Amino acid sequence: MQDYCTSSALSRRQFLKGLLAWGGLWVGLPKEAAARPIPELACTHRQQPGSGVWTEPVWMVSLADNRYLFPANQAVPHGLPGSLMKLVAATALLEEKLLSPNQALECRGSITLNGQTFHCQHAHGKLTIQEAIGLSCNVFFAQAANTLSIRRFLQYAQLYGLNTPAAQNASFIFPAEFANGHPSQAYALGLNRNLQPNALQLARMAALIARREIRGLHDNTWQVLQQGMRLAASRGTASELQAAARLRIAAKTGTTVHGNTFQSWLVGYFPFDNPRYAFCARAAAGTAKEAAVPLAQRFLLARQWDIQ
Ligand SMILES: [Zn+2]
User: Fold this and answer.
1) How far from chain centre, in Å, is Cα 279?
2) Cα–ligand 1 centroid distance for 14 (angstroms)
3) Could you give the number of structural domains in the chain?
4) N or C terminus of the chain: which is more exposed, having fewer CB within 10 Å?
């Protein structure tokens, strides 16, 4: 990997500034779960945004030195996150003990709740939450989110930094006020237009999961998230990443309808047993299976990464 940072003194200063800035932002969050987020990039002041060495729409975090790595000539996109928000919903459901890791819910392919019908491509049968992450089961999360308030969901979205910029002030949308409502399905499935994170925030979310970096969350919760993402990349919604098995990727897909077509994301990290990089790939057209997953796979396989 090319190293963008050349000034260690500036880097240190920026690093400390970042830590101080972050410290203030994370006070008073629920359950005293103050995060130790990735400090703001030490070297963003030296690298012009969009001046990276690749052109594919993939944003990365180098976990060894807390640096964001940017593609060349790409504005940072934001949009509906789709099923990426199942990671946030799963965190909230487990931490609030609304669901246990071993509890199974049944997916018969669709379910109608509160007058709204949610679909999966096929019936998944009985699933635990870990399996529901790996297979991205809408019916599972629609049922589970019935017990989760919007307010609670958004508090966990804050813990993942979806309400704060990452690395630069790229556009994103986060609700200005928390509606005090039920249920939270539209948020948990990433389909509420009031929540539209950008690619850097989503790469940071993957980095936080990779390093279990939100203080106060239980080991069991991290275990479920990480195992669910490994499942996705081995025999779930991102199973095409098997072709990149040597990188040992954990991942989560997200697809949303966009006019007559789809847009998609893939977030993840690797290697799952010693994470060195987190990433977020964005496909402006196509489902995750058609577009974001193959894009990320080609991108990751075409380069040498500093992994063990
Ligand atoms: Zn399902």
Assistant:
1) 9
2) 45
3) 1
4) C
91 CA distance to ligand 1 middle (Å): 19
Measured from the Cβ of residue 281, the count of other Cβ atoms closer than 10 Å reads: 30
Distance 152 CA to ligand 1 centre (A): 24
- In the numeric block, the tokens 């669709």 are attached to 110
Q: Tokens standing for 14? A: 């920026």
What global pTM score does this model have?
0.86
Quote the domain boundaries for residue 239. Answer: 8-301
Residue by residue, pLDDT tens for the chain (308 residues) are 333 343 333 333 333 333 333 332 333 334 434 455 555 544 443 455 556 678 999 999 999 888 888 888 889 999 999 999 999 999 999 999 999 999 999 999 999 998 999 999 999 999 999 999 999 999 999 999 999 999 999 999 999 999 999 987 789 999 987 767 778 999 999 999 999 999 999 999 999 999 999 989 999 999 999 999 999 999 999 999 988 899 999 999 999 998 889 999 999 999 999 999 999 999 999 999 999 999 999 999 998 898 97
Measured CA distances, 275 to 155, 176, 227 (Å): 26, 33, 14
Token match 């000034």: residue? 7
**Cα 231 to ligand 1 centre (Å):** 15
Residue 184 belongs to a domain with what CATH number? 3.40.710.10
Q: Give a yes or no: residue 213 inside a domain.
A: yes
Collapsing DSSP states into helix, strand and coil, what is residue 258?
strand
Q: What are phi and psi of 258, to 5 degrees?
A: -140, 95
Q: Is residue 232 part of a domain?
A: yes
- Please give the span between the terminal C-alpha atoms of the chain, in angstroms, as a whole number: 14
Assigned domain for 200 exists: yes
Q: Are 58 and 296 in contact (CB under 8 A)?
A: yes
Question: Would you say residue 254 lies in a domain?
Answer: yes
Q: How far is the CA of 67 from the centre of ligand 1 (A)?
A: 36
* CA–CA gap between residue 198 and residue 162 (Å, rounded): 8
